[in-house]
Amino acid sequence: MTGTATLPDAQGNTTTVTSHLPAPPARDHRAMFDAMDIDHDGAISRREASGDKYLLRAYVALDSDGNRTLDYQEMLRWFDD
């Protein structure tokens, strides 16, 4: 919500108007993941993540199963932040 205004008309009735920001467009997380998965093995390796210094910094924390790759579910945590 961005704002609300209550306006009277000539007969004394009031009307409340509320404005809202439009919802941001949905991001296609699968397409972003697939673009990062250069070798198409279904996981993001450290080498593939090295193109994004912020992802590389968070890599170990995102690798919740400790297998040294990031699968789609692990990457969703990155995309949603």
Question: Mind explaining what this structure looks like?
Answer:
It is a single chain. The protein is α+β, with helices and mostly antiparallel strands. Helix content is about 40%, strand content about 15%. The protein has a two-stranded antiparallel sheet with strand order 1-2. The longest helix is centred in the last third of the chain and has 10 residues, at about 55-60. The chain is rod-shaped. The two termini are about 20 Å apart.
Which tags fit this structure?
alpha+beta, single chain
Order of helices and strands: EEHHHH
Mean pLDDT: 87
Shape by Cα distribution: rod-shaped
Approximate helicity band: 25-40%
* C-alpha-based Rg, rounded: 22 Å
What structural class is derived from the secondary structure elements?
alpha+beta
Strand order of the largest sheet: 1-2
Q: How many DSSP H or I helices?
A: 4
First CA to last CA: what distance? Answer: 22 Å
- Poorly predicted regions: none
- Taken as a percent bin, the fraction of beta residues is 5-15%
What is the count of β-strands?
A: 2
Describe the largest sheet.
2 strands, antiparallel
Outline of this structure?
This protein is of the alpha+beta class and 81 residues long.
Topology summary:
Layout: E1 3-8, E2 14-19, H1 29-36, H2 46-49, H3 53-62, H4 72-80
Antiparallel strand pairs: 1-2
